[in-house]
Amino acid sequence: MSGKVYYLLHGIQDRYNALYQENMKCLGAEDIAVASIGGSGQSLLGNILQEVGLNYTDPYIEALHADGTSSPVPAYSDYAQRLSATADRHGGERPLQKGQWPRFFKTHLTPGFLEQRPLKGVWILVRDPRDSLFSWYKFRTNFAKDPLDIASGTFHAWLERPGPAGVSRLADWSIFYEQWADRRAAFQVSTLTTYEDLKREPVATLRSNFEDLGVTVPDDAISRAVEKSSFANMRAHESKSQAKHPDPVEGNTRIMRSGTPNEWLQWITPELERQFMKGEMPAVAERYGYDLAPQQRSAG
Question: According to the UniProt record, where is the region Disordered (predicted)?
Answer without folding.
Answer: 233-255
